[in-house]
Amino acid sequence: MKTITEFPRDIVEFPDMGIVMPDGVRLSARLWMPADADQDPVPAILEHLPYRKRDGTTTRDCLTHPYFAGHGYASIRVDMRGNGDSEGLMDDEYSDQEWQDACDVIAWAASQPWCNGKVGMMGISWGGFNGLQVAALQPKALKAIITLCSTDDRYADDIHYKGGLLLNENMGWGATMLSYSSRPPDPALVGEKWRDMWLDRLEHEPFLPAHWLNHQRRDAYWKRGSVNEDYSAIKAAVLAIGGWGDSYKNTVSRLVSNLKAPVKGIAGPWVHKYPHFAVPKPAIGFLQEALRWWDHWLKGRETGVEDDPAMRLYLMESEPPREWYLERQGRWIAERQWPSPEIATRTLALGTNGMLAEGVELEAPVSINSPQDCGMDGGEYCAIWLGPELPGDQRADDAKSACFDGAALEAPLDIVGSPVIRLKLAADRRRAMVAVRLCDVQPDGASTRVTYGVLNLCQRNSHEFPEDVVSGETMEIAFKLDDIAYRVAAGNRLRVSISSTYWPLVWPSPEEVTLTIHGGAIELPVRASGKGDEWTFQEPEGATPWQIETLREDSHLRKVERADGKVTLRIVDDFGETRDLDHGLAVGEVARESWSIDPADPLAAHGETHWTQTLKRDNWSVRTETFTTMRSDGENFHLTGRIEAYEGEILVFERNFSEIVARDHI
């Protein structure tokens, strides 16, 4: 990344700009703007998050917000109420209060003498979600948004459920938020009231994993905040960005296909990161691309964005499977329309003897009863921490699945879009699931997961109104696999792998299940192969990086252990410890997760997490330890949680959570 230190306009920064909400709660904002904005007003850009501007998102904030300010914007990074240095309490994600606060900040910014009255909203993940949600509320000053790694459907494509199945990330990210939100504000900013604010937060901290688990079907809770319920509510111009290594890859296509407002989409090879510093490479000049968007919609300049292709997608080349890639080979393709008339459907049927080809039939049923540890090479649901989180070699999981293989390809095959799997199958239990993986099999037998999908068979007809599976009854089902742009190389083979479980990505059915496959096919979105880039992005740029002293290096571990009849995935993400060279705050963070199961017993499934957070400056130090566990029996989920808070080595607060939640057709 090229570091830019000189900009068209000089910058002034306010590290703690207070924005008082109508109910008297003071939100803390970090604000960058041109030094002469009072004389020459500028548009504002808002990023509204719970992830702590003082120490949580500082790395990316330093690269991004001063860059926008230097090009003529007031860039505002707000700590959401109840987090970081802001007052108040947070009770859930995407609450009415969160949205109202964002609308009030937008109105506040638009009314300032340094603002020209136009505001944009930007964010990745949580900030990408609330950007879409706030845009649907149509605050007057909001003219454009950039949403990254987000979703338009909170039930189908967030960290809670997938295909109507419970994602283990529901507990994983709930545990992350328990840890994140347990930290105090910085006394250097809020003064002596920091301790009262901290204890108040701890006392009111919600136990989000259980809260989310109380909504196991697509009910009103999930519909609220899902902008796909009414795409027409969004009037602001939308630039939607995603990554093939991320969990939120499907949103870009749906937004571009359904929004009536001006909209463009970009999807690269990246994990859950901003694309100017994302991996796998190639990263792109995201900040320059964002400026083209802001300059047009907030300043009225002709930058050509309205003439950009509807979708710009990175078509990844076939590569051997690895749990981490620093770079993905491929090329940028561009589609003027989306859905694209240039993409055709090729249907490959499931055939006898594990064949996958056009026109074949399955002459005899195929049964599969996958061991409960099928899926151990599936990687993280949402790759984010830059460790070994991507799907590895699929051969071990393929061996636990029913596999259908195509012939070696005579020419490359470009898959662009979302494949659809259609199956005729039966299950021998009233609660059952199916997982389908599309794999690229190398000549040496190595199997790379191209894309995948899962479905709760109790939700085969409706995600809102589940119904029992009738044992032995043949069902006809169809569902989409995740969006992808991927070239299968000549000489490689396509494989469809079907399993009856997928641990530890999703929680297993309460009993072992045998699926009987009577037929099926996969519909592939195929684009004519070509050569060379159809679009070129500028090289990445950013402002001066965060200036820190490293006190402890980071490290990331992911390993599978097999002992005492159980299989356990252990994950340790030590994010290290750093000291801010400007204000002196030292921050340390360690996350630990384990997911274990008996391959023969789904009720042995168990997950637990333990997070440690430390904050230090001079003689002041605090630490929080947070813990969560989850298990289930045939009727209920059992969750526990615990917070411990320390000043120095003195325990000043402790709190336990324990909840039992009935299984609802899962």
UniProtKB/TrEMBL annotation:
SMART domains: PepX_C. Gene3D superfamilies: alpha-amino acid ester hydrolase ( Helical cap domain), alpha/beta hydrolase, Galactose-binding domain-like. Keywords: Hydrolase. It holds the Pfam family PepX_C. Residues 291-547 form the Xaa-Pro dipeptidyl-peptidase C-terminal domain. InterPro entries: AB_hydrolase_fold, CocE/Ser_esterase, Galactose-bd-like_sf, Xaa-Pro-like_dom, Xaa-Pro_dipept_C, Xaa-Pro_dipeptidyl-ppase/CocE. It comes from the Bacteria. This is Xaa-Pro dipeptidyl-peptidase C-terminal domain-containing protein. It comes from Aminobacter ciceronei.
